[in-house]
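Lab notebook page, bench 4
Experiment: in silico fold of construct C2
Operator: M.H.
Input chain length: 225 residues
Purpose: comparison with the prior construct
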Amino acid sequence: MTGTVVCVHDLNQAEPLPPHAIVVAENTDPEWVPIIQRAAGIVTRIGARTSHVSRTARELGVLAVVGCGEAIDQLRPGTTVTLLCAEGLVGAVYEGRVETTAAFSEADVVSIRHVSEAFTVARSCRPRQIHLDLSDMLTAFRLPPRGPATQTPAPRLRRRIAGYSSVDTFVQGKLVEATCLAAVAFPNTLISLTLSATSPWRDVLPAVAQTCRHDFGITIDVPAA
């Protein structure tokens, strides 16, 4: 969304808003709802994904980039900016008019080893395919070697997988969650799931892919071993 910066310090200043106004403010509260309704976008110094401004903007279909801190001081009234909230969980403000495709570099394949890394990469790259290596995630679970210890979990391990019927369903569920998060960062991108060739959990990948594909509509692939 491209528009003109309008800095609003109190509600009286916001009448009337010019067309395509990008409202820049410290924060918002429920009294700001009529202002957000008329804005093309909003940028705030304070806020998070669950704050009032974020929730209200989502409900009204208005782009919002929140929690910018001192960076909003660089936004001068009357200047043209472009808000981009198309990728990942963090929005961006660009100076001038920027076409969406110009904000991203293109790549054929990008490899991701941590789901949190996906959102950082998504800020600057629009790959055609993601290789999501889940090996590090499995290591972080600190599970015992797959075998008798995971087939009949000890009490301590059962507490760690609380809510899951077995260690296998725990691993599968967590890998589905990780894949879905990567799909949020890279919508409509082919995700290729991989694990270390020596991982004893490689056989759960087809089930993970099946769940992601059928339950969440993710375009996904599991390369042949």
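Observations: The CA atoms of residues 114 and 137 lie 7 Å apart. The mean pLDDT is 84.
Next step: discuss at group meeting.
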